[in-house]
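Escalation from tier 1.

The customer reports that the assembly of two entities below gives different structure tokens on two consecutive runs. Tier 1 could not reproduce it. I'm attaching the input and our single run for tier 2 to review.
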Amino acid sequence: MTRIGITVDGVRTEDDVEPRLLLVHYLRERLGRVGTPIGCDTSNCGACTVLMDGVSVKSCAVLTVQADGSEITTIQGLAAGGEWHPVQQAFHEEHGLQCGYCTPGMVLAAVDLLANNPDPSEQEIREGLEGNLCRCTGYQNIVKAVQSAARQMQEAGQ
Amino acid sequence: MTDTIEAGAKAVGAPLRRKEDAHLLTGQTSWTDNLQLPGMLHMAMLRSPMAHAKVTRVDGSAALARPGVVAVYTGADLGSVSIPCVWPVTPDMVAPAYPIVATDEVRYAGDVVAVVVADSNAHAVDALEAVDVEYEPLPAVVDMEAALADGSPLVHADKGTNKCYYWEFTGGDYAAAAAKAEVIVKRRFIQQRLIPTAMEPRSVVCSPMGASGEITLWSATQVPHIVRVLLALSTGIPEQQIRVIAPDVGGGFGSKLEFYREEAIAALVAGRLGRPVKWTESRSEGYVSTIHGRDQIQDIEAAALRDGTLLGIKADIKADMGAYLQIITPGTPLLGAFMYNGIYKMEGYHFGATGVFTTKTPTDAYRGAGRPEATFALERIMDELAAELGMEPLELREKNWIKHEEFPYTTIAGLEYDSGNYEAATARAKELFDYDGLRREQQERRDRNDPVQLGIGISTFTEMCGLAPSRILSALNYVAGGWEQATVRVLPTGKVEVVTGSSPHGQGHVTAWSQIAADALGVPFEDIQVIHGDTRSSPNGMDTYGSRSLAVGGIAVLRAAERVVDKARLIAAHQLECDPGDLEFTGGTFRVKGTPGAETTIQAVAFEAFTAHNLPDGVEPTLMADSTVDPDTFSYPHGTHLCAVEVDTETGATRIRNYTCVDDIGNVVNPMIVEGQVHGGLAQGIAQALFEEAVYDESGNLVTGTMVDYLVPSAADLPWFTTDRTVTPATTNPLGVKGVGEAGAIASTPAVVNAVVDALRPLGVTDVQMPCSPHRVWRAIQTANGGAA
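Tier 1 run:
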């Protein structure tokens, strides 16, 4: 067991964890943060994407001990003070989700994408979200949502 | 965060934002795997690594000694329970028992040999290696035609054959049509095996409720009502003691239209141990344990005159069942039996299907289920016929399709298409696509021998959906019906509950049903709650598949709401002291005709119905009604899909340059949701054309057993879609709606492959087997050149 300290969606926790424990399992099974789902076992699908110190990571590809000392933002912590993030709002407005299973990862990957590239082209969005699979939408409305969020965030100076 | 609409405005037809989104966008979800119950145990399945073997010994004692392990079950414990097949397509169909845990033989890689139950998933998975199993290998049966040949090893030795069934259907006289024909074009097409890959893996939790003997089963399923019935039938647990809940479900595409062994195992293990249990598949486990789709060999021929008049279609298919029959495995190919004629008129029609057992994961319904296969074969052979005749492929189609003034039209396959306008959809699609411009560019590229050739693919599809009229299902030997039920309740405070037997898993039923009820009752969209997916709160239902929810379940919502209004009218008339016939009802208000001010609202009536202080004689308290709709016929959406691809003839790489489709699904309830359904269907259909294939090696191992190897397309792999609609309302239901959930997946695959072949036809290529990967395309070019490919 290894002692770790980790802040998840603004709440700091100290814990003893097995070295093999994946971050996604820690979030789901120990902290009950089940808003982050698991979609594969090969780190292809991206459903479990979270932000680690502001950078998107697939939480199935991070050991909990690697996240020691970091700040994790999951989909459950993205809406600050109950106000949806512009990316969440844009996914709603543009119908960028159907079943919603890929949505937590897709939204957080898009947040990271826009942090690095506030005005992406369609192709840059498609390539930027390549690590997140969606089986429902055909991606077009996801692309539209990211474009729309980019406009909203630029107008708001975020 | 849900949309509101102005009072009096119509909700139906508006692109209202979805009520479902808020909890999905903020992670407040209830996926089955999220459930944690006190004392819950975890199950792991020991799966056969071999495609076919005798199991001579299974010993769980060492596993039982591993940390955290509570129990180990084998076929000796659980193998007497079988998964039922509910579609015996012929009286002599071979239907082997499908034990939920293999007893003496495994028949596909992934078959369950033992179940380990432990205090954590990690402990359960860790202990699998300690289960001692002895296998005696038997020959794998991988290829369908080899499986049918004399002397083939048998998947089920006691059955004496690998043939599951032969089923035939004819219309008119194909032999006569062929005798009259000046041209007969024959092709063999391969529908590769696909893996549905809903993003949410399957998961099941079962909790026994103590001394009462009741159990609650949560499952990532499309069909909680069907699971309840089949769980009762297969395990003997009394049906009234079973509650099945489908909480948030993350996609299905047919793969969750099932009753799976893990559901039965969970119920039995929970009962034996008296504790809640959970099982969630890993993705690679799901790739062998959750049903696959398609997998057919299609021999099709088209008979025609030189002027392009189509005389007949003959299709003989072999359909891979896999090792066992899941609930509708044998019937799935037959959902295409009436569709190999599509939108075309002809004199003779023959369809024959042979179901074949192999040592592979069972197949079953995957998005479109039988109709994508039919549409592919037909639309591909139409292009081949056009090439043979030297005709423009769109002109060949137009020459033969049913004209809009000919509806209703009874097809050669005996179905009555109620409505359609192929001319309008095609004209609109050609315009949006710039068909003539792209044809010109194609010619220019051909003229200059451009290494990047342009191909244009066409698919003028229709399909039968809205499954289904119960009496037709009966004629096809399906053992259940195709009705749907809804209940509408106006609560004392005027808010509304809609209970539906449809079971959504991404389609947006909560929003769409709210729109239907809002208009019918004249209440605000946001005042409506839709309840679904729990056999206790929505006790009757036939669930969601086959593009049936709106055309069947949505109609039930409408009818139930209309019955509520009928009852409310009696109460309102009593309150207003008038004859019910003197009331008009608009926007939620009853008004006495010709008497301004004499009015009451449906909400006020609901309160009167609740207090029951002053109801008319013979009217019972509360304001609610239900409706169970069994449709008279199918729904027949159609559309014209056009695809332009650029194919690099030096590398074989294909890029979709333009994908345009105009679908006609009749009236729409929510155009935003409809467009999303079309997009998703296109993505899956294009994926079949270009990317996806479940590959088995000759030993029966699934080579594409993880997401690394099975190519689910990402955003970077798919094009921008240009979509539009024409509106030819269905005449067979009061909303005028047709199904849309599968349309994109049915229409798009042949459009893409036709485009690839069209690009390469000047090089002598007449077919490219799916998926049209760069390697396959390059090889097709080399073969056509006479090269050693």
